[in-house]
Specification:
By secondary structure, the chain is of the alpha/beta class. The protein folds into 2 domains: 2-108 and 220-333, D-Maltodextrin-Binding Protein, domain 2, CATH 3.40.190.10; 111-205, Periplasmic binding protein-like II (D-Maltodextrin-Binding Protein, domain 2), CATH 3.40.190. It has 17 helices and 10 strands. The chain has helices at residues 2-18, 40-47, 50-53, 66-75, 86-92, 141-152, 169-177, 189-196, 209-216, 229-234, 236-253, 258-264, 267-270, 274-284, 296-309, 311-314, 327-333, and strands at residues 27-31, 58-62, 80-84, 98-103, 111-114, 132-135, 161-164, 182-185, 202-205, 223-228. The strands form 2 sheets. The protein has a 5-stranded mixed beta sheet with strand order 2-1-3-10-4, sandwiched between helices. Strands 7-6-8-5-9 form a 5-stranded mixed beta sheet, sandwiched between helices. Helix 6 (141-152) links the parallel strand 6 and strand 7 (161-164). Helix 2 (40-47) packs across helix 11, helix 7 packs parallel to helix 8 and helix 8 (189-196) crosses helix 14. The radius of gyration is 21 Å and the shape is globular. It starts with a helix and ends with a helix. 47% of the residues are buried. Mean pLDDT is 89; it is low at 1-23.
Amino acid sequence: MTSLFSRLAIALAAFMLSSGMAMADKVTLAIGGASCLCYLPTVLANQLGEYKKAGVDVELVAFKGGSESLKAVVGGSADVVSGYFDHCVNLAAKGQHLQSFVVYDRFPGLVLVVSPKHNDAIKSVRDLAGKKVGVSAPGSSTDFFLKYLLSKNGVDPNAVGVIGVGLGGSAVAAMEQGEIDAAVMLDPAVTILAAKYKDLRILSDTRSQKDTLAVFGGEYPGGALYTKAEWIAAHPKEVQGMTNAILATLKWIHSHTPEEIADKMPPEYVGKDKATYIAALKNTLPMYSSDGKMDPKGAQAVLDVFSQSSPAVKNAHIDLSKTYTNKFVEAAKGM
């Protein structure tokens, strides 16, 4: 009997190898705020079993913000980041070669919101001088966005106190309690607040193409899978598998209703108020990419934004072509 099982196991392994189904090495995927809808494709791919279908053993590890998940990859405790592409541009100025290989957010979805307790005092971005503003974590994309808006509106970023409040319930609580004057938030947190406070003041919104164009002057890519360029070169099978999984998930998202998507997500991410979560999903759906490709104009927009607020980036003469690759997306479409 043992010998029969052994023969069956060997035959199965041979079949998987011959059909390209053999599982690649385990990949640790760091997410900077897994409950945020901006990262939904990464989590949903796991819920749908798309990573396994693509032959990749992926372990999702959640962090408070994008800067913390980035540190995990740079430090070697994680393999790949599910986070915002702008980190690749920012670190290129510091001589660190990170590269995105599949984009799942067409827009960043970042929203600058005033705390309901401070509506009377803050009516514009300029009113944030001397105030405390929440971000997911210092050094994260929410922080970059805040500094860009402050500079654009003539406010010295150093004149604003930046407080890390996360992206989910902790951010909502900090806003409701008035611990901070405003915050850069993402859905579902923004929709949750808007449902409770009808006079919620939004100073800047990048959840749609129209709003993104108004803020940045062009499309501005948000979430993507990225990692060290040398890791990509050494693990093409894993990178291709993750790319295939994200593309399959994006296709699934655009062919299903918000209600169907919510049913697939972990209950702890949906929360007790499922109706509000679904409402937030409806606001977010236009944000998700349909093809996974990086638009060179979008990458240039990221560089332009950082160059305005960071002399180090402006003077670094960054080669944008090294901060992303579309070859795995193109390979997937050729399969």
